[in-house]
Amino acid sequence: MHPRDIAFFQADNKIVFIITPDGTRYIHNQKNGHLEEILDPRYFFRINRSVIVNTQAIEHVKPHINSRLKIILRSGLSSGEFIVSRDRMSAFRNWAHC
Q1: Lower CB density within 10 Å: C or N end of the chain?
Q2: The total number of structural domains that make up the chain
C-alpha cells in the first residue's frame, strides 16, 4: 500500500487495523511498535499507544485539556479524533511543525 492509501493504524484488543481514508478497516499482522520502526516518518507518527497517524489524514490539530493536543482527521473517517499522549507531545510538535 502507498502512504496515501492509509489514514492511520489502530490497535484494538491486540489486533492492529489499517484504516483507509474512506474508513475501510483491514487487519494487519504486525504490532504498532514494529510498524513505528518501519514506516516512513515523513508520513507516519505514533501519537499514542494504539494509534499511528498519517500526516495526510490530519484535518487540523487543536489544543485539548491538560496542555495536550487533539488531532481531527479528514471527514469520512469513523474515528475522527485522537489525543496525542503526554509523552509524545514534544516529538509530535517537532514532527508536525506545530
Answers
A1: N
A2: 1
- Comparing C-alpha atoms, which of 51, 72, 70 is closest to residue 6? 51
Total-model pTM = 0.88
3-state secondary structure of 27: strand
Domain, as residue range, for 28: 3-96
Separation between Cα atoms, residue 61 and residue 84, nearest integer Å: 10
pLDDT digit string, tens, across residues 17-69: 999 988 889 999 888 888 989 999 999 999 999 999 999 999 989 999 888 89
Buried b (16+ CB within 10 A) or exposed e, 60-86: eeeeeeeeebebebeeebeeeebbbbe
Residues 6+ apart with CB under 8 A from 39: 52
Three-state DSSP class for 68? strand
* Coil vs helix vs strand at 37: helix
